[in-house]
Design a protein that fits this description.
Elements lengths: L4 H9 L1 H10 L9 H17 L6 H38 L6 H13 L2 H12 L4 H8 L3 H25 L1
């Protein structure tokens, strides 16, 4: 994505619109990632300004405002999902589900390398015990595909943990 220099400067000079959109998305200025969201909002606004079209400046501002709100909400949801997954892993450790610290560290490293689908299966099916049929809607793939991915994931985790055990 390329942004025209003039469009970026115009967006930077009109930070008030972006800050208003962040406020409308209920993001407070003391939020730890406020500056990151502000910068992303400015980039979104610059992209909207850079698009050729026959819209009036007021209409571009109105549409940009809405787009920044939705982009911000999407980013906040992604952060929340990541935080929830991390919390689930920490709760599993705290509940005594992972007694061996080395295995926990290995699993933590492996979880970071998993795809979103594998993480969904790992946390919801393997850790929380939800049935695969309940995850079909959220994953947007068939039950058969989820079962295949689960088998591959379990085989991979067994292999990684077996290698660790033989190295001890």
């Amino acid at each position: 994505m390329k942004i025209n220099r003039e469009a970026f400067i115009a967006a930077w000079e009109n930070q008030r619109l972006v800050r208003g959109a962040l406020k409308a998305a209920h993001v407070r200025q003391d939020y730890t990632n406020y500056d990151d969201l502000l910068q992303e909002g400015i980039c979104v606004y610059a992209q909207m300004l850079d698009q050729p079209g026959s819209l009036s400046p007021e209409e571009v501002d109105r549409r940009s405002f809405r787009k920044i709100i939705w982009h911000t909400i999407d980013q906040l949801r992604k952060e929340q999902k990541t935080s929830e997954r991390q919390t689930e892993l920490e709760q599993a450790r705290d509940l005594g589900m992972m007694n061996n610290w080395d295995n926990y560290l290995i699993l933590e490293r492996e979880v970071a390398q998993m795809s979103e689908l594998e993480q969904l299966l790992f946390f919801h099916n393997l850790i929380a015990g939800e049935p695969i049929s309940a995850l079909v809607q959220e994953a947007r793939v068939t039950r058969v595909q989820l079962q295949r991915i689960k088998r591959q994931l379990l085989a991979h985790l067994r292999q990684v943990l077996d290698v660790q055990i033989t190295n001890l």
